[in-house]
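Support reply, case 0932

Customer input (verbatim):
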Amino acid sequence: MYTGNAGTDAPLDRGWLLGHFKEPGGPLHSEDVEIKWGVHPRGEERARWVRGEERTAFQILVTGRFRVELPGRSVVLEKPGDYVVWGRGVDHSWCAEEDSVVLTVRWPSVPGYAVPRSPEQQGPPGSR
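Our regenerated output:
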């Protein structure tokens, strides 16, 4: 069992609370699903598009205004509770149009999608 607070725990691993990248054997380790509590300041963008997606993703806006870019379409999440779902094979990117909090659920949890960090952003080994 594990209890925590997303606002406290999320910054420890770039927002990720649960997934394959967490301590094996621990309650937060899963190869079935990933969960992220994303806190994004206005203007923050994904460093590059995700290409060759192997997962299904669900994103729901908690606060703010958040734009998800999909091939041929932009989806703007503007009211708390607005969400978007896309499946395997759908490339994507995003941008926070206002300070935003977004809950992301992806499945399955597979390695290979983390954008490399700059040296000043490096965290502990295995961090996402």
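We compared this against your earlier run and they match. Two observations from our side: The radius of gyration is 14 Å. Helices lie at 6-9. Please reopen the case if you see a mismatch on your end.
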